[in-house]
């Protein structure tokens, strides 16, 4: 019986642990200094907003770990000695492993801004960030204004959090439109509007020059690079992306670049040491994916895959078709396949937006073969299973559009826009698409 | 807007205070001829009781309903004790003392509430309704644009088992205890709705009419809140409208109007075994006595339970009843919505739930079998068990304590579907069909779940929805009432209520969500 030690109790590490346990009775230890038990990091915002309590972000009850014989250790790892397979902890403790899984996730980027370590500056990543936020910004009398630096998903989540407690927010986004490195212009504009409608002081094309402090080392104001404007605030959220959390590996033999370098089997350069999740960096990119993907779903997939390898079925990490989702205030976002911010040369785009300005779909397909490449949707839910199949079967945009009814995942009785979407497509293109009916007869006769 | 809401709160509490205060107003003075009429109509045989009442109660003025009730019950107990000692069983008065007292006080009370019913209606119901609406309607602005707005629910003392929650709990529990066990203490409340009752059924209001009216009022006001909170979600809007319609029309208006036409009081949507006394002798007798109409009710009631309910559950899941029609569900979805997040999601609670709710179902079925046996055979007992005793135990434990005191009173502590989840025998019956033979399921959207836990937190039925969603597994659970809130609160759009083909309804759990297909095959092959 071997001892598998997993550093990090996020989605990647915990998924690995659970799947290893399903297939073997090896000793499993999961180490985290951040929290006793697994919680859903993506749900931290809802705790601050009062939608949930911290307990609710924990998918498993406390008895789960003992029942499944998974030991949890709350400690910070300070050093990994691969030569004698030993972990050293910051409190002086030691632990032997047979196989080691590094799943330490990421930490917020800091770019050496003056004042970035002052009291009142935080990211939104760790449980400790949430706790800090609760003391620094419990309400709008203690925190009269918050500034968020950096666009992207965590930035807008943080904005929504402050908004929920009526704390005025200034949102500095370096790009000239929100998240337009990822979202095409139309979606990006739509989100800009949504942010402004929530009375967020959105400053596009603005970056941070400096954070200044008062006499107590507490944030006092920020200075904007481009205009030199000073904005008084008591909390600054740094959300300019994340980077792999691997500083503790610096002195080890494990090869790293920005993240821990792994091959397609999630193996590092050292035998019996593996890395998964946000902190893993693929040596060769998979498909059109970036070598480091700090996404919940890929962390989970890597955890599942590695568990197969560690329990005797050597399995390569082969993520299927790209998908992702998020929520920007009240607007849900889903994406399947690829819709780049800028269309590539052989790509054609079709965009439809609802008159409310709160819903849209954006299709990407090959100009010549009409093969479907991807879709972005805001305010309309689409069925993952359907688009996964469409991509796998290399369906054309015509196939996809004519099946839009079957692809819709909105709740019952919601307004449907498929006909309108198709009408617009037909107007703009020479090809004519017919919408296939989703027959109720089939629904009730097919057993 | 905030000012309006504050004014609303003040008006509401003023109305509530007058409502509670009105119980202490007025005097009771029973006149000889009032009593004689009553005693004759009841066919009272206990001279002992009559003379005791004549001596201690008649034509005397009692300062409150409580004092009158106490004197009356003393007389009643004394008489009954003597009769029982002497084994004069036909003279014993078997009526519940507080119910007897209710009947007499209703005739004999005097005071401002009785004399100015309409005025007091406006000071109580009127002010409370107006105040609530003033508090709720500005939500259109204060809640912000349409979309899920659960901000601050866990920071609020009312919705997070804080002191306000406990106060509401005490109020609701006290209300139910008075309603079920001490109706004579709340006679003044029934005066408030006398004019309405008289216009509908032609009779003065009983405590049950009061309850029915209050129920509809509370549901309507809180439905306005639902409409505003979930105005982005058509499913919630339609569902709320549906339960409101069935409550007001089927559970309240139609039965009262039937009484006006001298037909039995019937709630046509109330299916056995939730309607547990449907097969009791008194109900069967009364239905058979009302000729063609009674026969229709009898056939409809049996058809509803045996055919309509299971067929509808097969096509739409039990939600068609629990979330679209049922009155208990209706109150839970309107008055109870602010408390939905308080239901216990632990595995322990789920285990307990299955034992308790199926236990109640078995209990109700056994009781019904005994009742029917008794009805047809004429013997009062089966194998030494008195049918009446079983009925009394059920009525007290399940019908009063569980359905009312705990079922609603505990909303602010245990969440809003305690009754549906742990106590309702019909829910258990529907659930068995839903679990094994139905087209209903909650579908999860492939691998999009981020395990955030919103779905589980806001599941009023205590289902750990996330446990299924994170595995990409359809949710097929007996207890799911299809309220659709898990789907509404999901920030990633992962959940969808569907009635579809049975094929693929129960899907395997061991899939690699989003990973390449051959890996899925590998797992499926094993």
From TrEMBL, chain A:
Its cofactor is FAD. InterPro entries: FAD-bd_OxRdtase, FAD/NAD-bd_sf, FAD/NAD-binding_dom. Keywords: FAD, Flavoprotein. GO terms for molecular function: oxidoreductase activity. It comes from the Bacteria. Residues 3-288 form the FAD/NAD(P)-binding domain. It holds the Pfam family Pyr_redox_2. Belongs to the FAD-dependent oxidoreductase family. This is NADH oxidase.
From TrEMBL, chain B:
It comes from the Bacteria. Residues 440-468, 471-500 form the 4Fe-4S ferredoxin-type domain. Keywords: 4Fe-4S, Electron transport, Iron, Iron-sulfur, Membrane, Metal-binding, Transmembrane, Transmembrane helix, Transport. GO terms for molecular function: 4 iron, 4 sulfur cluster binding; metal ion binding. InterPro entries: 4Fe4S_Fe-S-bd, 4Fe4S_Fe_S_CS, Electron_Trans/Redox. The chain crosses the membrane at residues 7-26, 118-143, 163-182, 208-228, 240-259, 287-316, 355-373, 393-414. One of its GO terms (cellular component) is plasma membrane. It holds the Pfam family Fer4_5. PANTHER family: FERREDOXIN-TYPE PROTEIN NAPH (PTHR30176). This is 4Fe-4S ferredoxin-type domain-containing protein. It comes from Polaribacter pacificus. The lineage of its organism: Bacteria, Pseudomonadati, Bacteroidota, Flavobacteriia, Flavobacteriales.
């Amino acid at each position: 019986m071997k001892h598998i030690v997993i550093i990090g109790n996020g989605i990647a590490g915990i998924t690995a642990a659970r799947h290893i346990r399903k297939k073997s009775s090896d000793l499993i230890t999961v180490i985290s200094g951040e929290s006793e038990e697994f919680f859903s990091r993506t749900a931290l915002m809802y705790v601050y907003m009062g939608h949930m309590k911290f307990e609710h972000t924990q998918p498993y009850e406390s008895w789960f770990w003992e029942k499944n014989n998974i030991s949890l250790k709350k400690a910070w790892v300070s050093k990994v000695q691969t030569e004698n397979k030993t972990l050293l902890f910051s409190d002086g403790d030691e632990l032997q492993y047979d196989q080691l899984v590094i799943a330490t996730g990421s930490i917020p980027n800091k770019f050496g801004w003056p004042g970035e370590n002052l009291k009142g500056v935080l990211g939104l990543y760790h449980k400790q960030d949430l706790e800090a936020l609760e003391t620094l910004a419990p309400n709008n009398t203690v925190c009269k204004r918050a500034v968020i630096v950096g666009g992207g998903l965590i930035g807008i989540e943080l904005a929504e959090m402050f908004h929920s407690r009526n704390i005025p927010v200034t949102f500095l986004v370096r790009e000239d439109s929100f998240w337009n490195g990822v979202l095409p212009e139309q979606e990006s504009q739509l989100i800009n509007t949504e942010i402004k409608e929530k009375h967020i002081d959105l400053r596009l094309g603005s970056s941070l020059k400096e954070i200044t402090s008062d006499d107590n080392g507490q944030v006092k104001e920020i200075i904007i690079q481009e205009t030199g404007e000073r904005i008084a605030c008591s909390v600054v959220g740094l959300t300019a992306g994340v980077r792999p959390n691997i500083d503790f590996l610096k002195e080890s033999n494990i090869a790293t670049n920005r993240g821990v370098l792994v091959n397609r089997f999630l193996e590092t350069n050292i035998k019996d040491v593996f890395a998964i999740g946000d902190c893993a960096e693929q040596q060769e990119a998979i498909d059109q994916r970036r070598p480091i993907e700090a996404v919940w779903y890929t962390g989970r997939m890597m955890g599942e895959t590695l568990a197969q390898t560690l329990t005797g079925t050597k399995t390569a990490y082969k993520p299927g078709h790209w998908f992702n989702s998020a929520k920007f205030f009240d607007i849900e976002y889903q994406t399947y396949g690829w819709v780049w911010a800028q269309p590539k040369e052989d790509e054609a785009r079709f965009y439809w937006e609802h008159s409310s300005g709160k819903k849209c779909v954006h299709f990407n397909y090959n100009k010549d073969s009409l093969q479907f490449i991807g879709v972005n949707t805001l305010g309309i839910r689409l069925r993952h299973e359907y688009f996964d199949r469409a991509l796998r079967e290399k369906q054309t945009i015509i196939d996809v559009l004519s099946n839009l009814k079957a692809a819709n995942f909105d709740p019952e009785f919601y307004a449907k826009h498929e006909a309108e979407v198709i009408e617009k497509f037909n107007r703009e293109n020479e090809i004519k698409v017919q919408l296939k009916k989703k027959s109720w007869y089939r629904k009730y006769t097919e057993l | 807007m905030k000012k309006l809401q504050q004014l609303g709160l003040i008006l509401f509490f003023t109305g509530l205070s007058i409502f509670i205060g009105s119980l202490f107003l007025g005097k009771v003075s029973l006149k000889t001829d009032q009593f004689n009429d009553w005693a004759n109509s009841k066919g009272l045989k206990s001279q002992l009781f009559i003379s005791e009442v004549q001596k201690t109660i008649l034509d005397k003025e009692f300062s409150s309903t409580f004092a009158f009730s106490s004197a009356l019950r003393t007389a009643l107990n004394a008489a009954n004790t003597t009769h029982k000692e002497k084994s004069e069983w036909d003279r014993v008065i078997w009526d519940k003392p507080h119910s007897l007292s209710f009947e007499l006080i209703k005739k004999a009370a005097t005071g401002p509430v009785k004399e100015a019913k309409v005025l007091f209606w406006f000071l109580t119901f009127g002010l409370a309704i107006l105040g609530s609406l003033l508090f709720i309607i500005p939500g259109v602005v204060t809640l912000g644009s349409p979309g899920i707005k659960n901000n601050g629910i866990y920071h609020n003392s009312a919705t997070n088992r804080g002191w306000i929650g406990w106060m509401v709990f005490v109020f609701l529990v006290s209300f139910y205890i008075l309603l079920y066990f001490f109706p004579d203490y709340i006679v003044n409340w029934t005066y408030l709705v006398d004019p309405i009752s008289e216009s509908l059924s032609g009779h003065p209001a009983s405590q049950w009419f009061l309850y029915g009216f209050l129920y509809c009022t509370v549901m309507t006001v809180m439905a306005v809140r639902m409409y505003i909170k979930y105005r982005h979600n058509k499913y919630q809007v339609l569902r709320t409208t549906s339960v409101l319609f069935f409550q007001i029309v089927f559970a309240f208006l139609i039965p009262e109007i039937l009484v006006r036409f001298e037909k039995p009081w019937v709630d046509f949507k109330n299916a056995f075994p939730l309607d547990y006394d449907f097969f009791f002798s008194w109900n069967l007798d009364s239905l058979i006595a009302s000729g063609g109409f009674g026969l229709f009710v009898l056939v409809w009631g049996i058809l509803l339970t045996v055919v309509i309910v299971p067929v509808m559950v097969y096509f739409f899941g039990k939600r068609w009843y629990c979330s679209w029609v049922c009155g208990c569900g209706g109150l839970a979805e309107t008055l109870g919505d602010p408390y939905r997040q308080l239901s216990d999601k632990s595995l322990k609670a789920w285990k307990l739930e299955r034992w308790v709710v199926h236990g109640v179902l078995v209990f109700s079925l056994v009781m019904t079998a005994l009742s029917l046996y008794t009805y047809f055979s004429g013997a009062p007992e089966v194998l030494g068990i008195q049918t009446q005793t079983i009925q009394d135990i059920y009525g007290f434990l399940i019908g009063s304590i569980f359905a009312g005191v705990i079922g609603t009173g505990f909303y602010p502590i245990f969440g809003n579907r305690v009754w549906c989840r742990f106590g309702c025998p019909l829910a258990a019956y529907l659930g068995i069909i839903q679990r094994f033979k139905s087209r209903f399921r909650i579908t999860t959207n492939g691998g999009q779940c981020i395990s955030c836990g919103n779905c589980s937190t806001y599941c009023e039925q205590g289902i750990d929805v996330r446990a299924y969603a994170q595995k990409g597994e359809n949710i097929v659970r007996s207890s799911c009432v299809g309220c659709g809130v898990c789907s509404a609160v999901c920030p990633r759009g992962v959940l969808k209520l569907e009635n579809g083909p049975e094929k693929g309804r129960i899907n395997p759990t061991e899939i690699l969500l989003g990973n390449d297909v051959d890996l899925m095959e590998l797992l499926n092959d094993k």
